[in-house]
Amino acid sequence: xxxxxxxxxxxxxxxxxxxxxxxxxxxxxxxxxxxxxxxxxxxxxxxxxxxxxxxxxxxxxxxxxxxxxxxxxxxxx
Length: 77
Description:
By secondary structure, this protein is α+β, with helices and mostly antiparallel strands.
């Protein structure tokens, strides 16, 4: 995303949302790496949830993470 990420309206919305809620990071590191969340089930269940950041500040829905985690079935020994 590099510099084009800074001109996107959604990035600035996410920045101000985080700033208003009191988030303060250390601003160390690369800063251009987008993140993601995966919920992976046991055995052959595979990926139950995949969320990839499309722009800086995208947040995964907590209810969807909890719903996916509840679907994890213990693997038989």
